[in-house]
Design a protein that fits this description.
Number of helices: 1
Distance between the termini: 37 Å
Order of helices and strands: HEE
Largest sheet: 2 strands, antiparallel
Radius of gyration: 15 Å
Structural class: alpha+beta
Length: 80
């Protein structure tokens, strides 16, 4: 499963809220008996991530697959 979330936050707000988004997703997934890797990337390049695996301490993030993908329209940020 590959999920993309597009926000209308400013780049600075994305950096500030990324750890909170990761914590919310972790709270949902942690009780489930599954292995997973979650990574939140911001437009400024900040990356926060969490992995859970019964097999090993670290679980690699799967590479991107080719094929049909859902394309979301770009959100323009105007400077006022």
């Amino acid at each position: 499963m590959d999920i993309h979330f597009v926000s209308t936050l400013t780049p600075e707000d994305e950096d500030r809220y990324a750890p909170m988004v990761l914590a919310a997703v972790k709270a949902i997934l942690e009780p489930m008996p599954i292995s997973y890797a979650v990574r939140v990337l911001t437009v400024n390049g900040l990356s926060v991530q969490h992995t859970k695996s019964d097999q090993a301490e670290e679980m690699p993030v799967a590479p991107r697959r080719s094929g049909p993908r859902l394309v979301t329209p770009a959100v323009s940020r105007s400077s006022a």
